[in-house]
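Appendix B. Chain record.
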Amino acid sequence: MKIDESALAATTNDLTREVDARGVADLIEFRMDKADDPLEQLAAYDGELPILATNRARWFGGQASDDGRLDDLFSASRFDAVELVDIELETIRSKAWLADEFHENDVQLVVSHHDFDETPEREVLDAIIEQCAEFGDIAKVAVYPQTPSDTLTLLEAVNDATNRGIDVAGISMGELGSHTRIIGHLYGSKLGYAPLLADDNDYAPGQIPLEKLASLIELTKNERVDGQVIDTLRSEVSVPKELTLSD
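Structure tokens predicted for this chain:
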């Protein structure tokens, strides 16, 4: 699955809920690490939306243990419905051969890096994106802002990486960074994530429910007056005073 512009992923641990995402999301992010019998769910899946399979380790914010985690993720990549697989930069950097193994199953790789404490300095963030892109088809960075300016650092890094020809997804987590989930596509971010309504799992801090996020993203695509868009976003989420919408 090649993402040309941007795509919205509905995050869930229950594939029977795929029908709830149709017409709103472009794909399903299936959180295998938080799912009951994930491989059995994939075998029974008859939904319409393609799947991004994620089996996040505990030290990267997930619930999967070391034992069999990558084997299960590789097994998931064999299913026709699975078109993308997420794997952490720290994992694939030590096992570079995994990229070829996954690509042989005709899946795209989202190589991700998460920092739940801070937003790295711009030079460090640029280097992380470059490393993710070295191994993956999409470089994903999710960082935690301490100040409003940190969210702008993330957006600027995504925009510059996009201009350099890198397919990148960027998220600033937490309430302070929630607006980046709405406007990230304007800066070139390829992927957005949102949980299905009534899903009580904590996938990442600052997430916005799917239907609400989709409607706010659509507003940024249709509205021509920057000030009106920002005022609307400010009524829904935290928005830095310095924010301007990218051309």
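Further analysis of this model is presented in Appendix C.
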